[in-house]
Protein backbone atom coordinates (compact mmCIF):
# COMPACT_ATOMS: atom_id res chain seq x y z
CA UNK A 1 0.00 0.00 0.00
CA UNK A 2 2.74 2.46 0.90
CA UNK A 3 4.47 1.69 -2.41
CA UNK A 4 1.41 2.91 -4.33
CA UNK A 5 1.35 6.16 -2.33
CA UNK A 6 5.05 6.79 -2.93
CA UNK A 7 4.54 6.19 -6.63
CA UNK A 8 1.65 8.69 -6.71
CA UNK A 9 3.82 11.39 -5.13
CA UNK A 10 6.66 10.64 -7.52
CA UNK A 11 4.36 10.66 -10.54
CA UNK A 12 2.68 13.89 -9.43
CA UNK A 13 6.06 15.56 -9.00
CA UNK A 14 7.20 14.43 -12.45
CA UNK A 15 4.08 15.77 -14.13
CA UNK A 16 4.03 19.13 -12.39
CA UNK A 17 4.02 21.79 -15.08
CA UNK A 18 6.64 24.49 -14.85
CA UNK A 19 4.99 27.60 -13.53
CA UNK A 20 6.33 30.04 -16.06
CA UNK A 21 5.55 27.83 -19.04
CA UNK A 22 1.99 28.73 -20.02
CA UNK A 23 2.24 29.14 -23.77
CA UNK A 24 2.40 25.44 -24.66
CA UNK A 25 -0.48 23.04 -24.44
CA UNK A 26 -0.10 19.84 -22.49
CA UNK A 27 2.25 18.92 -19.70
CA UNK A 28 5.82 20.05 -19.36
CA UNK A 29 8.02 17.54 -17.57
CA UNK A 30 10.81 18.50 -15.22
CA UNK A 31 13.92 16.38 -15.79
CA UNK A 32 15.77 15.05 -12.74
CA UNK A 33 19.20 16.57 -12.23
CA UNK A 34 22.31 16.21 -10.12
CA UNK A 35 24.65 19.13 -9.45
CA UNK A 36 28.23 18.31 -8.51
CA UNK A 37 30.78 20.83 -7.27
CA UNK A 38 34.27 20.07 -8.53
CA UNK A 39 37.61 21.79 -8.20
CA UNK A 40 37.39 23.11 -11.76
CA UNK A 41 33.73 24.11 -11.73
CA UNK A 42 30.19 22.83 -11.47
CA UNK A 43 28.88 19.75 -13.26
CA UNK A 44 25.16 19.38 -13.95
CA UNK A 45 23.77 15.99 -14.97
CA UNK A 46 20.20 15.77 -16.31
CA UNK A 47 18.30 12.55 -16.99
CA UNK A 48 16.91 12.84 -20.50
CA UNK A 49 16.26 9.31 -21.80
CA UNK A 50 15.39 9.22 -25.48
CA UNK A 51 16.69 12.75 -26.08
CA UNK A 52 19.40 13.47 -28.61
CA UNK A 53 21.23 16.69 -29.43
CA UNK A 54 18.68 17.60 -32.11
CA UNK A 55 15.70 17.63 -29.73
CA UNK A 56 17.48 19.62 -27.03
CA UNK A 57 17.69 23.40 -26.66
CA UNK A 58 19.98 25.03 -24.08
CA UNK A 59 19.75 28.80 -23.76
CA UNK A 60 21.68 31.19 -21.52
CA UNK A 61 20.05 34.60 -21.18
CA UNK A 62 20.32 37.17 -18.40
CA UNK A 63 22.12 34.70 -16.08
CA UNK A 64 19.33 32.13 -16.56
CA UNK A 65 20.24 28.76 -18.03
CA UNK A 66 17.28 26.96 -19.59
CA UNK A 67 17.25 23.34 -20.75
CA UNK A 68 14.20 22.45 -22.83
CA UNK A 69 12.99 20.27 -25.63
CA UNK A 70 10.65 17.53 -26.66
CA UNK A 71 10.95 13.77 -26.48
CA UNK A 72 8.66 11.28 -28.17
CA UNK A 73 8.41 7.67 -27.16
CA UNK A 74 8.22 5.07 -29.87
CA UNK A 75 6.00 2.17 -28.82
CA UNK A 76 7.39 -1.16 -29.96
CA UNK A 77 5.08 -2.67 -32.55
CA UNK A 78 3.23 -5.85 -31.63
CA UNK A 79 3.07 -5.12 -27.86
CA UNK A 80 0.26 -3.85 -25.64
CA UNK A 81 1.23 -1.26 -23.06
CA UNK A 82 0.81 -2.70 -19.53
CA UNK A 83 2.38 -0.02 -17.32
CA UNK A 84 4.21 3.29 -17.92
CA UNK A 85 6.04 5.46 -15.39
CA UNK A 86 8.19 7.57 -17.66
CA UNK A 87 6.54 10.67 -19.08
CA UNK A 88 7.29 11.96 -22.55
CA UNK A 89 6.56 15.23 -24.30
CA UNK A 90 7.81 18.71 -23.54
CA UNK A 91 10.44 19.07 -20.85
CA UNK A 92 11.95 22.18 -19.32
CA UNK A 93 14.23 23.12 -16.46
CA UNK A 94 15.71 26.55 -15.67
CA UNK A 95 18.49 27.69 -13.32
CA UNK A 96 19.74 31.07 -12.21
CA UNK A 97 23.53 31.12 -12.42
CA UNK A 98 25.68 32.95 -9.93
CA UNK A 99 28.26 35.46 -11.07
CA UNK A 100 30.99 32.95 -10.14
CA UNK A 101 30.19 30.84 -13.22
CA UNK A 102 32.26 31.64 -16.30
CA UNK A 103 29.30 31.76 -18.69
CA UNK A 104 31.52 31.86 -21.78
CA UNK A 105 33.12 28.54 -20.80
CA UNK A 106 29.97 26.41 -20.41
CA UNK A 107 30.04 23.19 -22.44
CA UNK A 108 27.38 20.51 -22.97
CA UNK A 109 27.47 16.87 -24.04
CA UNK A 110 24.83 14.16 -24.15
CA UNK A 111 25.45 10.42 -24.05
CA UNK A 112 23.05 7.54 -23.37
CA UNK A 113 20.27 9.93 -22.31
CA UNK A 114 22.35 11.88 -19.79
CA UNK A 115 23.03 15.55 -20.47
CA UNK A 116 26.25 16.78 -18.92
CA UNK A 117 26.92 20.50 -18.55
CA UNK A 118 30.29 21.69 -17.35
CA UNK A 119 30.25 25.21 -15.92
CA UNK A 120 33.73 26.48 -15.05
CA UNK A 121 34.05 28.84 -12.13
CA UNK A 122 35.64 32.18 -12.93
CA UNK A 123 39.04 32.70 -11.40
CA UNK A 124 37.96 35.77 -9.46
CA UNK A 125 37.04 39.31 -10.18
CA UNK A 126 38.24 40.33 -13.58
CA UNK A 127 40.12 43.57 -13.85
CA UNK A 128 39.46 45.56 -16.93
CA UNK A 129 41.03 48.82 -17.92
CA UNK A 130 38.64 51.27 -19.53
CA UNK A 131 40.16 53.60 -22.04
CA UNK A 132 39.26 57.27 -21.78
CA UNK A 133 38.60 59.11 -25.01
CA UNK A 134 38.86 62.85 -25.36
CA UNK A 135 35.74 64.55 -26.71
CA UNK A 136 36.17 67.63 -28.83
Can you give a write-up of this model?
The chain is mostly beta strands. 10% of the residues lie in helices and 36% in strands. The protein has 1 helix and 8 strands. It has one helix spanning 2-14, and strands spanning 28-29, 33-38, 41-47, 56-61, 64-71, 89-96, 107-111, 114-120. The strands form 2 sheets. The protein has a 4-stranded mixed beta sheet, with no helix packed on it. A 4-stranded antiparallel beta sheet has the order 2-3-8-7, with no helix packed on it. Strand 4 and strand 5 (64-71) form a beta hairpin. The protein starts with a helix and ends in a 16-residue tail after the last strand.
Can you give me a brief rundown of this structure?
By secondary structure, the chain is mainly β. Helix content is 10%, strand content 36%.
Task: Supply database-style keywords.
four-stranded antiparallel β-sheet; four-stranded mixed β-sheet; 136 residues; 8 strands; mainly beta; disordered N terminus; 1 helix
List the SSEs and their pairings.
Elements: H1 2-14, E1 28-29, E2 33-38, E3 41-47, E4 56-61, E5 64-71, E6 89-96, E7 107-111, E8 114-120
Parallel strand pairs: 1-6
Antiparallel strand pairs: 2-3, 3-8, 4-5, 5-6, 7-8
Q: Main β-sheet, in a few words?
A: 4 strands, mixed
Low-confidence stretches: 1-21
Residues in helices, as a percent range? under 10%
Strand order within the widest beta sheet? 1-6-5-4
Structural class: mainly beta
Supply Rg.
20 Å
Q: How many E strands?
A: 8
Number of helices: 1
Order of helices and strands: HEEEEEEEE
The fraction of residues assigned to DSSP E strands is 35-45%
Mean pLDDT: 80
Counting copies of identical and different chains, the oligomeric state is single chain
**Overall 3D form:** elongated
Calculate the terminal CA-CA distance, rounded to whole Å: 82 Å
Amino acid sequence: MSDEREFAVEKEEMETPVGVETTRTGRTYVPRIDIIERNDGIQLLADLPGVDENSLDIVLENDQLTIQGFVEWERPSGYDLAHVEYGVGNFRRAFKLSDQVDQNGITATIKHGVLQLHMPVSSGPKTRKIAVQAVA
